[in-house]
Specification:
By secondary structure, the chain is an alpha/beta fold. The chain has two domains: 2-256, Nitrilase/N-carbamoyl-D-aminoacid amidohydrolase, CATH 3.60.110; 262-461, HUPs (Rossmann fold, 3-Layer(aba) Sandwich), CATH 3.40.50. It contains 16 helices and 20 strands. It has helices spanning 16-32, 57-73, 153-159, 180-195, 261-279, 294-307, 324-337, 347-357, 368-389, 399-404, 425-438, 444-448, 468-480, 485-490, 495-507, 509-513; strands at residues 2-8, 37-39, 78-87, 90-99, 102-108, 132-135, 138-144, 164-169, 199-203, 205-208, 211-214, 218-220, 226-229, 236-244, 248-250, 286-289, 312-316, 340-343, 392-395, 417-418. The strands form four sheets. The chain has a seven-stranded mixed sheet with strand order 5-4-3-2-1-14-15, covered by helices on one side. It is elongated and about 85 Å long.
Length: 544
């Protein structure tokens, strides 16, 4: 029998010392459990993605020293380890097979992704040959992440004699028609089935800036059938046992699954908040402006599930336009979750601003300027509390608002991290109901009442925007699918709505560029996914 441990770890980019210590500790634990081989995710020494840290010679030297340390420290178990390797003035993304106190073989990633959130060709040279290692009773082929998605590397491994392929990954989560883990499984299963070979797929877990990695490592047999899958959104040392008859066959074991798309997204948000806040040194926690609306209610629930109620402070900042039921609902949200809250009315400072600007604004009608002043009063309060108590502000805006600019710079956009920045409004409602299915933390009235910014009398979001049931599908087609307004109209949407929305998206690029980062859950988030110019004279027509 061959026993392989998959070390699904949450490592930190750049923290090479801690990553090294965790790799050594995990290898020893795997050895203690009787495993012969332990496999770590892609670039596990440096964390993924290290981005422009890879351009620093001292960083590469430190990584190389860490690999030497690991080789010397791990003796009773073999390991497959990912790290950057400088060779002949070129940098490679590699995985080495390490055993008996030495590097036995090294594989360089052949397919370097250069799309969406990936830009590996900026840093790495591509490898050009397979790597197959004789180990125990098997011959193990090693590949890295994108290599499994493209034809060539796995096939070359089999031609070189591999009877097991191990693929190490740093593959981020996102949702489409199905979640990303299902897409991975379908690709890997098709490879295994076509080549009649079992494949072991190890993925990292955790958040790096905007990218959340979901883990969900798995194994398929030579027929392409799933035999084992690890947990989602958490660390795990998953042991895979192979029997030989005479070829290696993975034993069936636990198969973890998500109960729903909402569960996957919610867990991604929770992991994202926990990692971003704690890895960036905000051990004292976070502060959230709680309005009584659904966006801040969901953000509060995520924050408490991520950090604990004792690490979350809610601030209610009512204005002259805030309805009493909004205050009641916000208080109830905080009480449901056991969160300390404060009430700081913004009327005194809002009136002070109005008085200070009265002469300059004399004779001019009230408009969105006065609305934005209220939002900026709240932003000032939240940032003051952040400074004084060393707590990160969590912004509460959703993707629909961010897309069309229905947000105030230096107001409700203020913060260190925007939790639901990539969550469309219609999904916000679905997530709220999902969270309430576990235990009720969001009052039903918050979910059922029409959304409003409450910055003027009797305000409703739909006074300024199409209904979210119409807006979100238009945004998905325009932003994520790159469809032209003409194509969207042809799909059955109202022409006036489509061109109005497209114009709002285009003219608000400058706002989004100044927004804090947030958890990426779609395949085209506002962040590293989107690289549109702020200054642009281009306006889409029917086809553009």
């Amino acid at each position: 029998m061959l026993s392989i441990a998959l070390a699904q770890l949450n490592l930190t980019v750049g923290d090479i010392e801690t990553n090294t210590a965790r790799i050594i500790e995990t290898a020893r634990k795997a050895g203690d459990r009787g495993c012969q081989l332990v496999v770590f995710p892609e670039l596990s020494v440096t964390g993924y993605p290290p981005e422009d840290l890879l351009l620093r010679p001292a960083f590469i030297e430190k990584s190389e020293h860490a690999v030497t340390t690991i080789v010397k420290a791990v003796n009773d178990v073999a390991i497959i380890l990912g790290y950057p390797l400088k060779k002949d003035d070129r940098l490679f993304n590699v995985a080495s097979f390490i055993g008996n106190g030495a590097i036995q073989a090294t594989y360089a990633k052949q397919h370097l992704p250069n799309y969406s959130v990936f830009d590996e060709k900026r840093y790495f040279a591509a490898g050009d040959s397979p790597c197959v290692v004789d180990f125990e009773q098997s011959r193990i082929g090693i590949t890295i992440c994108e290599d499994i998605w493209e034809h060539g590397p796995v096939e070359d491994s089999v031609r070189a004699g591999a009877d097991i392929v191990i693929n190490i990954n740093a593959s981020p989560f996102h949702v489409d028609d199905v979640d990303r883990s299902q897409q991975r499984l379908e690709i890997v299963s098709s490879r295994a089935r076509a080549l009649a070979i079992p494949i072991v797929y190890i993925n990292q877990v955790g958040l790096q800036d905007e990218l959340v990695f979901d883990g969900a490592s798995f194994v398929v047999d030579a027929a392409g059938d799933l035999t084992q899958r690890g947990v989602y959104f958490d660390e795990q040392l998953m042991v895979v046992d192979f029997d030989f008859s005479p070829k290696p066959v993975p034993r069936a074991a636990d198969i973890q699954a998500l109960s729903s798309l909402e569960q996957g997204i919610y867990q991604a948000l929770v992991l994202g908040v926990r990692d971003y806040v704690l890895k960036n040194g905000f051990e004292r926690g976070v502060v959230i402006g709680l309005s009584g609306g659904i966006d801040s209610a969901l953000t509060l629930a995520v924050a408490v599930d991520a950090l604990g109620a004792d690490k979350v402070t809610a601030v209610l900042m009512p204005s002259r336009y805030t309805l009493e039921m909004s205050v009641e609902d916000a208080k109830q949200e905080a009480e449901y979750l056991g969160v300390e809250y404060q009430v700081i009315p913004i009327e005194p400072m809002f009136q002070s601003f109005l008085d200070g600007l009265a002469d300059v604004f004399e004779g001019l009608a009230h408009d969105e300027t006065e609305e934005n002043l209220q939002a900026r009063c709240r932003g000032i309060i939240l940032m003051a509390l952040s400074n004084k108590f060393s707590k990160m502000v969590l912004a509460t805006g959703n993707k629909s608002e961010m897309a069309v600019g229905y947000a105030t710079l230096y107001g409700d956009m203020a913060g260190g991290f925007a939790v639901i920045k990539d969550v469309p409004k219609t999904m916000v409602y679905r997530l709220a109901r999902y969270r309430n299915s576990i235990d009720k933390v969001i009052p039903e009235r918050v979910i059922s009442r029409p959304p409003s910014a409450e910055l003027k009398e009797d305000q409703r979001d739909e006074d300024s925007l199409p209904a979210y049931e119409i807006l979100d599908p238009i945004l998905e087609r325009y932003i994520e699918l790159d469809q032209s307004p003409g194509q969207i109209v042809a799909a059955g949407f109202d022409q006036n709505d489509v061109y109005r929305v497209a114009n709002m998206v285009d003219r608000n690029e400058y706002k989004r560029r100044q927004a804090p980062p947030g958890v990426r859950i779609t395949k085209r988030a506002f962040g590293r996914d989107r690289r549109y110019p702020i200054t642009s004279g281009y306006r889409p027509g029917q086809s553009g």
